[in-house]
Specification:
This is Fibronectin type-III domain-containing protein. The protein has 142 residues and is mainly beta. It is built from two helices and nine strands, in the order ααβββββββββ. The chain has two domains: 34 residues, no CATH class; 88 residues, Sandwich (Immunoglobulin-like), CATH 2.60.40.10.
Length: 142
Amino acid sequence: MSNSLQRVAPANPKCSEWLATKPFVSPANWRRTRPRCSSCGSSTTPPSKPDPPSNCTILNQTSDSLSLECSEGFDGGLRQQFVMEVFDAASGRLVGNVTSRQPAFGVGGLDAGAGFKINVYAANRKGRSPVCYCKSPPCWAR
C-alpha cells in the first residue's frame, strides 16, 4: 500500500476551484482545510405548496356513488394529502368531502340523477395546490 495522498474533490464546483489551488489534500486534512463557505454545503430547495393533481378521471359512476383517480404532481418536498369535494351542480351545496394520502377517491350516498361539480386538490404544510375541477371527465386545473 502506498503512502501517497489522494486528491479529494468535493461535489460543488466552487469548492473544487479552491481545492485545485491545494495540490494534495488528504481526506483527514480536508475537514480542517476546506473553505468555510455556504457554497460548499449541499443545497436543497425550500419546501413549497404542492402541484395540482392531473389526469383526473371518473372510473366508475353509479346512481348514488362515484370513484375518481388522478395522477399526483410534485409534493413540494413535503408529505401531501389529496382532497376531493363534491358539490351539487344545481344548488352548489357540498355533498361529499374525501381526504386521502393517494389521489384516488370514492364517495357514496349521492342523490340519484343529480349533476355534480368535483374539485380535487393537493395540500401540504405550506398550503394547497390550485384546484382541478370536473363536471364530467376529464378534469382540468383551474
